[in-house]
Amino acid sequence: MTGHRFDPTILREYDIRGIVGETLHEADANALGRAYAKILTGTGGKSVAVGRDGRLSSPALEAALVAGLSESGVDVIRIGLGPTPMLYFAGHTLGVDGALMVTGSHNPGSHNGFKMMLGKKSLYGENIKRIGTIAAAGDFVSGKGRVTERAVKDAYVARLLQDFRGGKELNVAWDAGNGATGEVLQALTAKLPGKHVLLNEVIDGRFPAHHPDPTEPENLLQIQDTIKRFSCDFGIAFDGDGDRIGVVDGDGNILWGDQLLVVLAREIVAAKPGAQIIADVKASQVLFDEIAKMGGKPLMWRTGHSLIKTKMAETGAPLAGEMSGHIFYADRYYGYDDALYAAIRLLSIASRASESITAMRRRLPAVVNTPELRIPCADTRKFAVIDEVKTRLSRAGAEVSDIDGVRVSANGGWWLLRASNTQAVLVARAEAADRAGLNGLIAQLTAQLQESGVAMPPVPTHS
Ligand SMILES: [Zn+2]
User: Fold this and answer.
1) Could you tell me the distance, in angstroms and rounded to a whole number, from the CA of residue 244 to the centre of ligand 1?
2) Where are the alpha helices (DSSP H) in 47-152?
3) Could you list the active site residues?
4) Between β-strands 425-432 and 373-376, what pairing exists: parallel, antiparallel or unpaired?
5) Which tens digit of pLDDT belongs to each residue from 80-122?
6) How far apart are CA 387 and CA 20, in angstroms?
């Protein structure tokens, strides 16, 4: 059998992603189906669910993927168009042995890719490398799998609603960003009490309104305007495939991923004192301190949705979150990142609490910090730079955590430098109690980068 070579840039740490017609083609989707089938059948599995997002290239990639799977003897249940967490839901509830999603997540319409589960776990890292090796060798299995279609939207929406605990009625703005959550969002809000203002709820793979990425403030301008115009209690935005959430309070202020996690954690820790709450290494010290103060056990872990999910399963933590807006509930739910489910829990909290989400945000200790800084650095150098910085800092006796890159405590604040797993960049953040402290930290970081021959770009800040 002839082998298939993927463009080396598309096989990434947590998923497969490329530019359609340039680095990613239908032949890749077919070869992925065949190589995935080899891994699946090797573990004794024989059936999968397959879903797709609303990108214009997704139907053709999905068809090629399904063909590759079924030519390898794997039975496929096609669930069709919807968000990534709906596919994860299918993976957990349809009695299948794995699941594959065709999605370019929050990236521009010209991009696309795949997220995968093997059993009930994320398929990532070594297994993605294996997909490349199996395909290159043409080391496939053959057979004739059955292909069926099954709509899961109603069951998924019902499952989301099952955990809604309502109190007072709310007025909420929602922005689906023309992404894959649109239809589910319409069905969900139609059944929720209160007033719901929907933006960009029509799925459109060209993303005409704005980029479907709620971690970029410019993509939240429309929902901020809507909150003001309709006096909404708060607003919720989703990324292109619904595994990341963005929240804006009633004042129009963004609740960053770590601030949202504080709000969500309070309910969990109140019910389960001592509960472990996991957040990634990019999160504010405020988050870890607040979780400890409320009686929970904060755990800092490596950035990356697959890594966080794996750590959660290992520790039994009921809740985890990332700065990037991935929120993971194992409390009453399956432990995967589902922004629609996180929205339901946030709505429940907001409708039952005596205090508004806006007041909860205002009450968080004020700090000044930088957003995520992305510093260009060659793939061949990025990990070496981290090692060099680590060595110099430990020689200098600095207080350093090396869970993921280096996170340095200094000046009553901290700074982080880590190598991106997916791009030729170093990622940095810094946070301090005040502007002067932050400037001191940025100077330290800049000096460390300079010593390793990396130039620091200009630094914007938000408080
Ligand atoms: Zn996403």
Assistant:
1) 5
2) 58-71, 84-93, 126-137
3) 105
4) antiparallel
5) 999 999 999 999 999 999 999 999 999 999 999 999 999 999 9
6) 35
